[in-house]
Structure formats: C-alpha cells, structure tokens
Amino acid sequence: MGGVGFIVATLVGANLYEMNKSYPFWMGSILVILAGLLVFAFIREPKEFAQTEKVPNILDSLKEVVQDKDKSALRLLLAIFFWFLGYTAIEALFTLYSINHLGISEANGSRLMGDLSVIFVLFAIPAGFIGSRFGRRRTIITGIIVMSLVLLAIFFIPTTTLLKPLFNLPLLGIVPSEGASAVLVVMGALMMVAGAGWSLININSLPMVVDMTGAARLGTFTGLYYLFSTFSAIVGPNVFGWIVSGTGNNYNSMMIVAPVTMVIAITLMWGVRRGEAMG
C-alpha cells in the first residue's frame, strides 16, 4: 500500500506540479487528513488486551538482538540499514539529480521515480512468492545485486543515452517536449528494473525480521525494523548530500556510492541463518 501511495505521489503529483507548484502539497495534506479519518472511522481496537507473557520493550529487544550468539537478527537489521541508506538517499535527492544531471524538469524526474514505484507494486506478490519458494535470504541478495547493477549502469551510461526514447507509454516515462505523448526513455526502463529489484528486497525483509522471534515479540521486532530503516532514511540524504557537495555538486556520484552500501548489505546478509518462511 505504501507503494501505491508513492505512485500517487510521484505520477499524480508530477501532473499537479506542472499545473501549480503548490497543488502537490495540497494533495498531500488532503490525503493525510483523509487517512486519519479512515482510521478513526473503521479501525476498532479492543479495550483490553489479553497478554499471556511479558512483552519486552524495544530497548530490551535490541539488547537481546545484540547479545544473541547467532547474530542473524543483528546482521539482518544492519543490512536493512545499509540498503535503505542508499535507496532513501537517491529517493530524496532524485529530483535534484534529474534537474542537475539529466537536465529535465522536476515533474519529469518525479515520473521517472514513478516508473520504479509502479513495477515495485506490480512485482510485490511475485516477489513474496519467489521469497517463499527459493528462500528470503537468496531473494533479498538477488534484489540487492539487481539494484546495484542498475545504479552502476545509470552512473556509466551517458545522459544522452539515458534520455533516449524507447516507445510510447501512457502515464509512465517522461515527456520530451511540449505537447508530446508520454515516452518511456532508457532511464525509465532502468528504473523499472530497479523497482523489481527493490520489490525482491523490501517485500521479504520485514517478514524475515518478524519470523526471527515469537508472537510476544512481533510488535517490538517490527519496531526494530522501522527503527533501523527510518534512522537510515534520516542519515542517508545527509551523507549523500555531503558527498554530492564534496564532488562539486556532481549528483551522478550518488549512483556510484549507493552500490557500495548495497555491497555492505550483501556482506551482512551472507551471515544470516534464520528468518526463512516456514514450509
């Protein structure tokens, strides 16, 4: 559902931005209010919760993860931090990358991110099936490799080639000229491949975390997942922003640094021994 929301934000938001730069912010405000009203109207929680065993807080769970001799949970959480480090940084700075490196508008940069999010959503169920069939660890590592190769390709391929039109594709792609129909460019196709890779990673990571613990700790281990991924989303844009500044505002440098964080994630995943789907 988060992927569906991202599609709305990037593709619908891009069209609204071209009409008026304030319209996407109005859309975001309205959607947040609507989401709150839906939760208030339809979500019903029990007044009392039955507890069969003591539920540890998130700090106790983190201590348990660190002290675990197996280290699988700690390795997985650190891997989550590092792959989100690269992904969220590119996601946050992609509009600036589009303007400064690709030489396209903010709206068309948003449409390129929309290409990734559409394939991410469409590939979500197949990614879950692949993880159950071939193993979540292998599936995640495969997704990381796919993402890394795409980012390296984007780094090395010339801008003129990245923006080369492939074929007409309504909604997706970018608009190369005023009044032209939507055209998928090479960059859009690469972003779609990245979306499939990101789906292999993201769809299987949270289930892998929660399957490392029992029912009483599902909530706290879910909290650990979001602690590491959200902290990464805070750190990533700042670190990559410093890298861009240090390279003379070369936004393409992101595409060579992000695979480094992905390689670190693969190294960590190699030692994970738990969290597979139970047959």
Percent helix, as a range, is over 70%
Strand content: under 5%
CATH architecture annotation: Up-down Bundle
The CATH superfamily is MFS general substrate transporter like domains
How do the helices and strands follow one another from N- to C-terminus? Answer: HHHHHHHHEEHHH
How are the strands ordered across the major sheet? 1-2
Distance between the termini: 26 Å
What name does the CATH topology carry?
A: Growth Hormone, Chain: A
Radius of gyration: 20 Å
The number of distinct β-strands equals: 2
Please identify the top-level CATH class: Mainly Alpha
Structural class computed from helices and strand pairing: mainly alpha
Count of discrete structural domains: 1
Major sheet characteristics? 2 strands, antiparallel
The tally of helices reads 11
Write the layout of secondary structure elements.
Elements: H1 2-19, H2 23-42, H3 58-67, H4 72-102, H5 106-122, H6 124-134, H7 136-156, H8 159-162, E1 165-168, E2 183-185, H9 186-210, H10 218-246, H11 254-269
Antiparallel strand pairs: 1-2
Helix pairs in contact: 1-2, 1-5, 4-5, 4-10, 4-11, 5-9, 6-7, 6-9, 7-9, 7-11
Task: Please provide a written account of the structure.
This protein is mainly α. It has a single domain, classed as Growth Hormone, Chain: A (Up-down Bundle). The protein is 72% helix and 3% strand. It is built from eleven helices and two strands; from the N terminus they run ααααααααββααα. The protein has helices at 2-19, 23-42, 58-67, 72-102, 106-122, 124-134, 136-156, 159-162, 186-210, 218-246, 254-269; strands at 165-168, 183-185. Helix 4 (72-102) runs antiparallel to helix 11, helix 6 crosses helix 7 (136-156) and helix 7 (136-156) runs antiparallel to helix 9. The protein is globular and about 55 Å long.
